[in-house]
TrEMBL record:
Family classification: Belongs to the universal stress protein A family.
Name assigned to this protein: Universal stress protein
Pfam families according to UniProt: Usp (PF00582)
CDD domains in the cross-refs: USP-like (cd00293)
Gene3D superfamilies listed in its UniProt record: HUPs
Highest taxon in the source lineage: Archaea
InterPro entries assigned to the protein according to its UniProt record, in alphabetical order: Rossmann-like_a/b/a_fold, Universal_stress_UspA, UspA
Ranges for domain UspA: 1-141, 155-290
């Protein structure tokens, strides 16, 4: 499924886990690793003269160049083909352009940038890439330090949330391909959204229909897993979807969460689904998103 893996980087600290996941998957698939850094020239720094702007861009270019070298070195240590590039422009646009130019199959990138504010929300570049990319994006939480990631990684257990949508099934296809590579256990989960439905006051028939819909959705994923010879379990929960999914993933100690970006909402278009956005922003576990 994956023959070219792209790792965008701005040189932020704490990217060891991102690099580890990218090279692990590239190794499993025999894929090439591409490292890309984009010097953000899309917004003019306020209050800086021409010389100061040039110095700022040079510093960003140097940091990005060093980060891409680090990534390609790690790939080459695994005898993987590697390439790197440093560009100028609007980061998410340059990343998506590179994806098209090189025919990238998977993007692996960190979920927060340089500033303190970005540490409590999904960085705008990552969110824009997730929303607009036509290939799967693996979001990995950047660490607070550059401590080495022990071992070779790998994936033993995967959670696939589903709402029965086409996007959820596409995410399941990608996740199950990875699960097949590692003979991983699969958990398919549906959450009846108690923030939308007042379940305490709803008739039992309505609650029953919602649960039945969840059972059908998870069973669809389960059947896809069984066809690949994978061990699979299903669960239907109720509550606030993002919180329930994060709690479930933590409880079964999974290595990867895979979900669609847009869900089943009518007219959601290219907007990142609220549940997916919350999970990606808050999850300490890598999240694979598929449009």
């Amino acid at each position: 499924m994956f023959s070219t893996v792209l790792v965008p980087t701005d040189g932020s600290a704490g990217a060891e886990a991102t690099i580890a996941h990218a090279t692990e998957l590239a190794d499993a698939y025999g894929a090439a690793v591409h490292a890309l850094s984009v010097v953000d020239t899309g917004v003019e720094p306020i209050g800086l003269g021409a010389d100061d702007r040039e110095s700022l861009y040079e510093s960003s270019e140097r940091r990005g160049r060093e980060a891409t070298i680090r990534i390609t070195n790690r790939a080459e240590e695994r005898d993987l083909q590697a390439a790197r590039d440093v560009r100028e422009g609007v980061p998410y646009r340059e990343i998506l352009a590179y994806v098209d130019e090189v025919d990238v199959d998977l993007i692996v990138m960190g979920t927060h940038g340089r500033t303190g504010a970005d540490r409590v929300r999904l960085g705008s570049t990552t969110e824009r890439v997730i929303t607009r990319a036509d290939v799967p994006v693996l979001s990995v939480r950047l660490a607070e330090s550059e401590e080495p990631v022990p071992g070779d990684g790998g994936y033993d257990r995967l959670v696939i949330p589903t709402d029965g949508s086409d996007a959820a099934e596409r995410a399941a296809e990608a996740a199950l391909d990875i699960a097949g590579k590692y003979d991983a256990d699969v958990h398919a989960v549906y959450v009846v959204d108690s923030t939308t439905y007042d379940l305490e006051d709803a008739p039992r028939s309505i609650v029953g229909l919602l649960k039945e819909g969840g059972q059908n959705a998870t069973e669809t994923i389960a059947e896809m897993a069984r066809e690949r010879g994978l061990d699979v379990g299903t669960d239907v929960r109720r509550g606030a979807p993002a919180e329930e999914l994060l709690d479930y993933a933590s409880g079964v100690d999974v290595d990867l969460v895979a979900m669609g970006t847009r869900g089943s909402a009518v007219g959601s278009g290219r907007l990142l689904g609220s549940t997916t956005a919350r999970v990606v922003r808050r999850s300490p576990i890598p999240v694979l998103t598929v449009n």
